[in-house]
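Protein modeling request. Please complete all fields; requests missing the sequence field cannot be processed.
Requester role: graduate student
Desired output: 3D structure, token encoding
Chains: 1
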Amino acid sequence: MRALIISVDLGNPDYVAHAEEFAMLARGAGAEIVDTVKARRDRPDAKYFIGSGKVEEAVLLAKAHDADIVLFDHPLSPAQQRNLEREFMLRVVDRVALILDIFALRAKSHEGKLQVELAQLQHLTTRLTRMWSHLERQRGGIGMRGPGESQLEMDKRMIGAKVKVLRERLDKVERQRLTQRRARARGGALSVSLVGYTNAGKSTLFNALTRADAYAADQLFATLDTTTRRIWIQGAGSVVLSDTVGFIRDLPPTLIAAFRATLEETVHADLLLHVVDAASPQRDEQILEVEKVLNEIGAGTIPVIMVYNKIDRVDMAPRVDRNAHGTIARVFVSAAERAGLDALRGAIAEAGQIAGNNASNIQTVQSE
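Delivered output (368 residues):
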């Protein structure tokens, strides 16, 4: 699909990284980028987000390149989206809808598909005004206009009923996950979750530690479904390791809500391995984005070891860094080259022993 990108600089210092990331998202969704229109504004325009002059320029470029779709690198209000579509006479997909489309493309498990469908419907309900949106007739659920209010009311009822069914199914999945989590807790296994920015190499690291075959690729959101494996680590015993969905700038709230059951694995973990792309120039910003989401889902107080991955790309050697208290804070590894993994296993074991001692102290205090 031939896509014209509209990229808007609102004065953010990380604008270039934001724009590059959006282009990666577009290519990951299967788009062929024919051109990019760049605009700079102090604040979004209420009608078009960008100025009318830039809209005219973009319309001409879209026609010249025979574009099939317009991709906008910021979230748009329903009114802004409709106004732009009237000018382009093409579908306009904003950042939120593009991420939802990628999630729909990548979800493989039954649970993942339910979560993505719920997020898509929740996003769609805000954009139904004067849109023809029969679920069986929508083309991706974005940008369809329709004949009248009676149809609109039917669509709202249809979507509301579907959302209710999806939530009931996801609640059932969450109860099953809770039962599994309790069984693991009774078994005394240390629970460790891999978290991190998308494309930081979590799945590659997961495969290296567990000898599993979880899908891993050099692209944003290569995997969405949580994968859990039980492994044995010397000094820690049985460890339950979970690979979770990656985070990204401005992760849509609907996705955080829909993936609540999956993210519960992170909230209830004993230890988080925060995987960082050591070769990324934006790694500090990415770390902050992940920490922000962890705080939002209630996982901000769980012990964390920072795992700097892909050190082979920056010519670094594996090593372990400790903080001022002598606790392991950072481990530098290359999951692809299997370098530094023994040190990481040792860090997990050490953290597990600390967690076990803390749990014992809490039980002692409670019994007293």
